[in-house]
Design goal:
The protein contains 2 helices and no strands. The longest helix is centred in the middle third of the chain and has 50 residues, at 10-59. It is mainly alpha-helical and 60 residues long. It has one domain (2-59). The termini are far apart.
């Protein structure tokens, strides 16, 4: 990728700009997505535990 940054062609500059934008979007979106993923997993585990508990209570 370094070779593209050193060339003076418009294609190399466009690809460098594209990767710069993608990297910036990634760095801004990942901190929002990670807590959402963690809360989603906690919710699924909690719902699964509640279902197992309710099923166990019905069997008793």
């Amino acid at each position: 990728m370094q070779e593209l940054a050193e060339t003076n062609s418009p294609v190399g500059a466009a690809e460098t700009l594209e990767w710069s934008v993608i990297r910036r979007i990634t760095w801004r979106s990942v901190p929002l997505l990670v807590p959402g993923y963690i809360f989603s997993m906690i919710g699924r585990v909690n719902a699964g535990f509640a279902a197992i508990t309710a099923w166990h209570d019905e069997q008793s």
